């Protein structure tokens, strides 16, 4: 498929298409870089939170990382089976579990930090500092717009 054929087949929403393409590429590269460490995409975010802030309840991780309970439970269980975290009951709340990074996880911490620095460097490329600042401001505004958007009911949903 030629570039013009590819461009012609895209829906006419250029900003939405650009966001999807950039997010897909970023996730693909991150996943490839994390795989040799034994981490899956998203698990590094949990680990960075635990390394930076110490042990936390699963509920707190859900809130801080803007996740859902089921996804966080799966993520934490996978990290536990990989030896990256330890799960224990909360001493103050019998319904809660506390997640903490294991000493063994520290061996991949520097590499995860290096991967995130590499992703940042790859994403910013030849952008000037001013262009990076502008891009960040535009992305924040887009995030704010999307966060406050009202989604109309789907056609035929009766609702």
SSE arrangement:
Elements: H1 3-9, H2 14-34, H3 43-53, E1 56-57, H4 58-64, H5 69-81, E2 85-89, E3 97-101, H6 106-124, H7 129-148
Antiparallel strand pairs: 1-3, 2-3
Helix pairs in contact: 2-6, 3-6, 4-5
Your description of this structure?
By secondary structure, this protein is mainly alpha-helical. The chain contains seven helices and three strands; from the N terminus they run αααβααββαα. Strand 2 and strand 3 form a beta hairpin. Helix 2 runs antiparallel to helix 6, helix 3 packs across helix 6 and helix 4 crosses helix 5.
Structural class: mainly alpha
Strand content: 5-15%
Number of strands: 3
Using the alpha-carbon principal axes, give the shape.
globular
Task: Give the number of helices.
Answer: 7
Percent of residues in helices: 55-70%
The termini sit apart by 41 Å
How do the helices and strands follow one another from N- to C-terminus? HHHEHHEEHH
Largest sheet: 3 strands, antiparallel
Which sequence of strands runs across the widest sheet? 1-3-2
The whole-number mean of residue pLDDT values reads 90
Q: What is the CA-atom radius of gyration, in angstroms?
A: 20 Å
Low-confidence stretches: none
Key features?
mainly alpha, 3 strands, 159 residues, 7 helices
Provide a quick synopsis of the model:
The chain is mainly α. It is 62% helix and 8% strand. The protein contains 7 helices and 3 strands; from the N terminus they run αααβααββαα.
């Amino acid at each position: 498929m030629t570039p013009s054929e590819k461009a012609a087949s895209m829906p006419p929403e250029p900003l939405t298409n650009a966001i999807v393409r950039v997010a897909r590429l970023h996730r693909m590269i991150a996943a490839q870089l994390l795989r040799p460490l034994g981490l899956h995409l998203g698990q590094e975010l949990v680990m960075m939170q635990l390394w930076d802030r110490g042990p936390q309840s699963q509920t707190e991780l859900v809130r801080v990382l803007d996740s859902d309970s089921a996804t966080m439970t799966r993520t934490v269980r996978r990290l536990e089976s990989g030896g990256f975290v330890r799960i224990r009951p909360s001493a103050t709340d019998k319904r809660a579990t506390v997640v903490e990074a294991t000493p063994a996880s520290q061996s991949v911490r520097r590499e995860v930090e290096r991967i995130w620095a590499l992703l940042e460097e790859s994403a910013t490329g030849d952008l000037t500092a001013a262009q990076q600042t502008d891009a960040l401001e535009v992305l924040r505004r887009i995030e704010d717009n999307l966060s406050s958007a009202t989604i109309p009911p789907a056609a035929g949903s009766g609702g």
